[in-house]
Amino acid sequence: MFKTLKPVNVILIALATLLLIKAPLVLAQNTTTLSKTLLLEQSVELTSSSINTKTIRVSFPVGFKTPWHTHEGPGPRYVVKGKLQVIEDGKTNTYSSGDVFWETGSLMSVENIGKDVAELIIFELTPAH
Fold first, then answer.
1. Distance of CA 3 to CAs 6, 51, 97, Å?
2. Per-residue pLDDT reduced to its tens digit, 47-63
């Protein structure tokens, strides 16, 4: 009944979901063409032919900073709102509402450096257990 998806298809589904979140509501009577923007492209070497995907929404209170941590798997991250400072692999980057970035799964820390609550969508790709 259920069909096993190839790892490449799982990644494509996750990235397509990103596009759907970012895409504005389009009304047929107001627009005659579809607008499509590539937000992120990343090559991934998968360690397993069976991949588990997770989509997680995280809210960061003003001034909140995570402890150093890792995630079970890499994947794209989408900033829904706010401003986040991400330190990963010794590099510091700042991302704001609408930004998409790739997290490798390495040791990292995230801090809300904005004036309001920040929200992040995590698409995580992990080996299936």
1. 9, 13, 35
2. 778 888 889 999 999 99
pTM tops 0.85, yes or no: no
Q: Strand order of the sheet with strand 100-103?
A: 51-60, 118-127, 75-81, 100-103
Whether residue 92 is predicted with pLDDT greater than 60 in this model: the reply is: yes
Q: Please, what are the domains in the chain?
A: 7-127 (2.60.120.10)
Say what percent of the chain tops pLDDT 90. 47
CB atoms within 10 A of CB 43: 5
Burial of 44 from C-beta contacts in 10 A (0-12 / 13-18 / 19+): middle
Helices (H), 1-102: 7-22
